[in-house]
Amino acid sequence: MGRKIELSKDGFCLSEGEVEGFLERVVTPLGNSAKADVPKRFIGHRVYIIVTKNKEEI
User: Fold this and answer.
1) Residue 53 CB: number of other CB atoms within 10 A?
2) Residue-wise pLDDT tens digits, 7-18
3) Residues contacting 38, CB < 8 A, separation 6+
4) Given pLDDT bands bounded at 50, 70 and 90, which one contains residue 44?
């Protein structure tokens, strides 16, 4: 049985077979907004960002 990520908000469920990989990035400032850089190979892919309670010091 594969791993499964379940979020209680709106019944969202994502199984391991649907995921190409996981990335950990720090969100950095960009003007009046923010960004998280990902590899170019993910251009055009749907991505999900999971925000943790722990903050990184930038």
Assistant:
1) 4
2) 666 766 766 677
3) 23, 25, 47
4) very high
DSSP-derived secondary structure for 30-48: ETTEEE----GGGTT----
In the numeric block, which tokens belong to residue 19? 């995921």
Token pair in block for residue 5:
């990520």
In which residue are the tokens 């943790």 written?
A: 52
Q: Are 19 and 50 in contact (CB under 8 A)?
A: no
Rounded CA-CA distance 17/3 in Å is 9
According to the model, what pLDDT value does residue 58 have? 63
pLDDT band at 52 (very low <50, low <70, confident <90, very high): confident
Tokens found for residue 29? 């400032």
